[in-house]
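User: Okay, second chain of the day. Same drill as before: sequence in, structure tokens out.
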Amino acid sequence: MQQRLIVPIAAFSAVLGVTASASAFAQDTCRQGYVWREAFPGDHVCVTPRTRDQAAQDNQEAARRRQPGGGDYGPNTCRQGFVWREARSGDVVCVTPETRTQTAQDNAQAGARRASAQAPGAAPADGNRPAAGYRLSGWSGWGRSAGIEYRYRLGLEPQNKRYATDVDAIFEVRNPQRETWEGSVRTLDCSQDALHGSSRVVLKPNEAKEVKYLTTNCGTQDRPSIRPNIVRSHRID
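Assistant: Same drill. Structure tokens below.
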């Protein structure tokens, strides 16, 4: 006989300030199919999800790609075959020449890829763009729990009664393992360990997904917070 046991791995409280106004949201929100690059804090240049992943990988590899002991350009001199990314002034992360070229192209296209650049009256590609008053927090840092990597952000619309006591919990989860991961992305009640929201997730090796559901707001509309909790399903024979 087989049973499924949900084993909680980690739970913690976190507070994310939602400080962007409706106009700021409109200015920074990317058009359908694009996401913030996040090559550095506050980098809201809109790029493809693959480019964002590349930027994160380049940041992780930055130290290994520098010339040991420095060189003609000081301590940030790149090894042979790498150049500075230059996503902004002072960005000396070492990347391939192709990536630097792509970065320059993305910077040049930044304005056209924002939601605010869409023609007036035009319908969004997926028909699901958030309302004008909808606000999003920034992403949390990446964490790891129950064998997967995850980060999260919060969304709400202050004028909508639906968000009087709740917020949208938006998780990005990815599976770095070589086997399929099954479990749940959850949030807990503000004052106790009772389950308040949950979404079942199955991730193939190296697969990433976005998960979104409504959950209780443990903070205020100006500074919302949640209690995230990641669990994995285990089989017991």
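The first strand starts at residue 3 and ends at 11.

User: Thanks, on to the next one.
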